[in-house]
């Protein structure tokens, strides 16, 4: 089976042959919109995780209080990183914009600020 794959000209490196940055103007808005949505959800899950870790675990003493919020936040953070990578490749953002967006995902209320900045950028204005 693996030899058939190789005979057809396949390779094990899935990223070879991908065309980055050629998505056209139509995909620009979609990639920014996806990043805005994931950023907002990731910011809300971060606040939920902080609430569960501070109030429910420390004050109420529930030891398993952060299991579900931690998992949800972890998945949303990975989705945020993937969406940020997509926007970086699609829009050709520089290191400063990507770094700013990534740092915003690490601070509790910064994703809401980032969402507003991305909304302006979605309309064609710079971040």
Outline the structure in words.
- This protein has 127 residues and is mostly helical.
- The protein is 72% helix and 0% strand.
- It has five helices and no strands.
- The protein has helices spanning 2-7, 24-59, 67-91, 95-106, 110-122.
- The radius of gyration is 19 Å and the shape is elongated.
- It starts with a helix and ends in a 5-residue tail after the last helix.
- 20% of the residues are buried.
- The model is unreliable at 1-6 and 10-26 (pLDDT under 50).
The shape is elongated
Largest sheet: none
Order of secondary-structure elements: HHHHH
Q: Give the integer mean of the pLDDT values.
A: 80
- Helical region count? 5
Oligomeric description of these chains: single chain
Whole-angstrom Rg: 19 Å
Q: Structural class from helices and strands? A: mainly alpha
Tally the beta strands: 0
Distance between the termini: 49 Å
Helix content: over 70%
Low-pLDDT regions: 1-6, 10-26
Q: Work out the strand percent.
A: under 5%
């Amino acid at each position: 089976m693996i030899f058939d794959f190789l005979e057809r000209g396949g390779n094990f490196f899935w990223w070879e042959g991908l065309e980055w940055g050629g998505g056209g103007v139509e995909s620009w808005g979609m990639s920014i919109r996806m990043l805005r949505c994931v950023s907002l959800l990731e910011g809300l899950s971060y606040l939920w995780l902080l609430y569960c870790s501070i109030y429910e675990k420390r004050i109420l003493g529930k030891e398993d209080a952060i299991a579900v919020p931690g998992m949800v936040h972890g998945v949303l953070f990975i989705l945020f990183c993937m969406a940020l990578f997509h926007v970086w490749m699609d829009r050709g953002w520089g290191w400063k914009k990507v770094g700013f967006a990534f740092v915003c995902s690490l601070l509790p209320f910064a994703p809401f600020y980032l969402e507003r900045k991305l909304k302006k950028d979605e309309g064609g204005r710079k971040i």
